[in-house]
Specification:
mainly alpha, rod-shaped
């Protein structure tokens, strides 16, 4: 009877184990990106609801000062929505690039071909996208802080 150990060499097992270990590193980035997407999506829903509420207040506003304040707030909310859209798109792209990195890693390990440059490019791109997503989220946060400092708290959605 032929055993599995005699079919698969110990070098092949060591190489496969190493590939699996190395592949876990990008998966941590992918998990972080997925968590960030959840946070960004929640924030996007909140800002969107707030923009709708501001639109209702603007339609009901009778005073020119209130109207101009609400128009400025509405513009800030549009910028926040754009920043959050960018944060989500970049982070999702970073997650996709991370998945690509894992695929390249496994294909390179199976075919024993030099894929180091592709791994560096793919994982580097993933990192840049996630950092870009975080930077766009920072823009949203700064816009929110600026609005509170400049105008004070605005009416909240009911």
């Amino acid at each position: 009877m032929v055993s599995v150990a005699s079919i698969v060499s110990s070098d092949a097992i060591d190489n496969t184990a190493h590939i699996v270990q190395v592949a876990l590193t990008p998966i941590f980035l992918l998990t972080g990106a997925a968590t960030l997407l959840g946070v960004f999506n929640t924030r996007l829903a909140y800002v969107s609801d707030h923009a709708e509420h501001t639109e209702e207040l603007l339609r009901a506003a009778e005073d020119d000062e209130d109207r101009s304040r609400l128009v400025a707030h509405q513009a800030r909310l549009r910028h926040r929505l754009q920043a959050l859209d960018a944060a989500m798109a970049l982070t999702a792209l970073g997650g996709a690039a991370t998945c690509g990195t894992v695929c390249i890693l496994f294909l390179g390990g199976v075919q024993n071909k030099g894929v180091a440059s592709w791994l560096v490019i793919s994982f580097g791109f993933a990192l840049l996208c996630v950092v870009g997503g975080l930077a766009a989220f920072l823009v949203d946060t700064l816009l929110a802080w600026h609005g509170i400092r400049q105008d004070g708290p605005m009416p909240r959605p009911k």
